[in-house]
Amino acid sequence: MAKVASSGTRSILRHRGGFSAFVEGAIKFFCLLCALVSVLTTFGILFTLFSDSLVFFSRVSITEFFGTTKWAPTYEPPTYGVIPLITGTLMIAISSGLIAIPLGLLIGIYLSEYASSRTRAMLKPGLELLAGVPTVVYGFFGLFVVTPFLMKFIPGIDTYNGLSGGIVVGIMILPLVASLCEDAIRAVPRGLREAAYGLGATKTEVTLKIVVPAALSGIMASFILALSRAIGETMAVTLAAGAQPALTLDPRESIMTMTAYIVQIAKGDIPAGSNAYYTLFAVGLTLFAMTYLMNVLANKLVKRYRQVYT
Hints:
- By secondary structure, the chain is mainly alpha-helical.
- It has 2 domains: 2-59; 71-305, MetI-like fold (Orthogonal Bundle), CATH 1.10.3720.
- The chain contains 12 helices and 2 strands; from the N terminus they run ααββαααααααααα.
- It has helices spanning 2-59, 62-67, 83-114, 117-131, 135-151, 162-186, 190-198, 203-214, 216-231, 235-240, 258-266, 275-305; strands at residues 71-72, 79-80.
- The chain has a two-stranded antiparallel ribbon with strand order 1-2.
- Strand 1 and strand 2 (79-80) form a beta hairpin.
- Helix 3 runs parallel beside helix 6 and helix 3 packs antiparallel against helix 9 (216-231).
- The longest helix has 58 residues, at 2-59.
């Protein structure tokens, strides 16, 4: 009887083991499919951008596209100088970075090193709520609140202007910078702080000379990722910064970013197959290249300044 029971137990265990192996294999296969979907989607986007951009560049030279300074693909005669769109995009990214990077770093330092648990529990949901506001709301906020406020202090500012767009995008990416900086600073081992305190360092000295340099890779990555988000922002800059593709460095004037142009042309009556239609893909490919280079730079900075603790 004992032998019969023992063989029956072994049979049940083999059955369960086979079922568990099947479940594990199915889960592994499903995860692989999910990963392949993301990879194939990326390749599909790249294929679309490259194939249609090649059609555009077979009609318009790359020299004219990147070497001239007038963008009017829907006028007669059409001109295809993308430089005004690139400068408008960079103006928004730089101005928003000047707002979000220092404020976000200071918020991250405060939340990680100075705030009590109760204060952190109150501030973190506020930051997360700010991050959850739709971008179109930021655009209306810039148009109806920020711009009228700026008009009281800055003479000659346009209703749609780059400064207002940069401010609202800076507010929009502020939670991203603050959250990533806090995570990077909190990841620094507590032993480094205690060692510095044991040598007589003050709280400020420990924070600025020990903790922040040790978390520099994560902090720099947060800056680059936030700027990439600012470069790709659409609705906020479309509503606040305007739709005037002018080559200017004056933030008081109306500008157009690459994303704003894509929105403007995509919703218009542009004949498929025309040069103006293919500018969508050429501008989209340029925007993709800019964000890709930003991400590559972020990865290099992370590897360059990464510190491994054991």
